[in-house]
Prior knowledge:
The protein is of the alpha+beta class. Helices cover about 30% and strands about 15% of the residues. It has helices at about 15-30, 60-65, 70-75, 80-85, 115-120; strands spanning about 5-10, 40, 45-50, 55, 100, 105-110.
Amino acid sequence: MNNGYVVKMAKDIRGIEQNKTEYNIYNSSNSRLFAEIPYISEDNRLLVMARAKRIRKMRTVYSYYKVNNINSLLKVNNLHADLKNNDLGTGDLRRASSWGFINGTPVIIDYGLTHNLFRKYYKGNLFLKKKFPPLLYT
Length: 138
């Protein structure tokens, strides 16, 4: 999309659930650190999110928010409370690829993997590479 937004397309059931989770978190969070999600399709396959510019190093995020580590970052804008209220861990937040710049501000762009979804789809499966049926789009 050339209008400042991107479409995240779920590849399989895990993507559908993560899209739904991201949409719910964005709409219930108190923090301003989650990228805007103005729309999700009825079947949760497609999610529209504000377009972000890539962040390559977590040091960039820490520097912007004037913190030194992930624990200090959790205190910014009630982020810790939002993680706790939404069953999110800090794993994804530690990766620069989960962050992006929107209007010059670092925000979280990948936040759909809750502890529950991890247990359901990934725990014990990281090395087995269990396959999930791909979604078909027409």
